[in-house]
Amino acid sequence: MGEPASAVESVFREEHGRLLAALVHRFGDLDLAEEVASEALEAALVHWPVDGVPERPGAWLLTTARRRALDRVRRDRVYATRLAELAVDTERRASYEPPDAGELTDDRVELFFTCAHPALAADDRVALILRCLGGLTTNEVARAFLVPSPTMAQRIVRAKKKIRGARIPFRVPGPDELPERLPVVLAALYSIFTEGYAASSGEHLQRLALAEEAVRLTRILHRLMPTEREVSGLLALMLLVHARRDARTDPTGAVMLLDVQDRTRWDRAMIEEGSALVVAALTGRPPGPYGVQAAIAALHDEASDVDSTDWPQIVALYDVLTALSPSPIVALNRAVAVAMRDGPAAGLELLDGLADEPSIRDYGPYVVARAELLARVGRKGEAAEAYRRALELAGTEPERRHLRARSAELSRSREL
């Protein structure tokens, strides 16, 4: 039962956002939608291993969840009263058919903006969007924002209670409301993409379906708001980074770092599209954080190899990004770029200056970057210790294999 159950959960994970948004659109209740979505998963775990995965698993889950919801509403006065208070016509919603996936009226976009309502605290908005529409687990959301899982769970519960208590409508806001909610939606989309591009746990380095879903939703936003430069910037950033997806692992699934990737496997059409969007994102008013990050990604993609990359320009762009949106992670990335421009000792000094930041001290990429720079400056004992710590923090099996190999390589060089 293990493998079929895993397959069901994998399908459910990728369909979760679409399913939940459709249910909320029909029934107007987020808690009800989550409960019947979970019941649909339980039903799939029973039927699919016997009957096989349906040709349209999302439709199967939606039909099952909808029936459970209608049964619940009919027999449960609490839900019936709540839906009446929300002025929800359950029969009209039950007969509603989802629009074509390419339409701007995608239910998930509707729910994205609802979850980004100004009545919610900023952290709660992003947490709720990631959990409900991104299909991320509470632990994955917590990792994305470098906070403990119990803290993140509390944020998600608090946000759902606020939506219910304030009777926040599930709809795409009007033009006058969009600028206020857009930054939170963009932050959530980027976090979902990041989890897809660099999975926080599991057997694979990437969750490509999740990354592609973030790209798709961002394309919808871009069509909806084509003149918003930060929407262009975020879409550009995603495309320019996602273009490298096929080269990030070898045929065995092993990690391939940027300096050894086969750049002929990069998606040139995606790079061209992303580069054009960078121009739009940086034209006119002073740039925003996503536009600047996209410009950095474009410089990487334009270079024929790591050595020919314009590292001085990348450092300069990180300086701009630091002024616009300072964070320990921006400082980490800038330090790595400085190491490439000025040598490993210069980068290591900057990384050591971040060691007192609680949010980054145990952040895997920080520990890995420091281990690599320690090795490059010849401090191999400290590097080995840092690699051991990085191995403890690694979330995916490909990362662990890579770190074990790097640690073994370092041990062999110490013995010579």
From TrEMBL:
One GO-annotated biological process of the protein: DNA-templated transcription initiation
Domain RNA polymerase sigma-70 region: residue ranges: 14-77
Name of one Pfam family that matches: Sigma70_r4_2
Keywords: DNA-binding, Sigma factor, Transcription, Transcription regulation
GO-annotated molecular function: DNA binding; sigma factor activity
Location of the RNA polymerase sigma factor 70 region 4 type domain: 115-163
DUF6596 domain: residues covered: 181-281
Domain of life: Bacteria
Family: Belongs to the sigma-70 factor family. ECF subfamily.
Protein name according to UniProt: RNA polymerase sigma factor
Organism: Rhodococcus pyridinivorans
Lineage of the species this protein comes from: Bacteria, Bacillati, Actinomycetota, Actinomycetes, Mycobacteriales
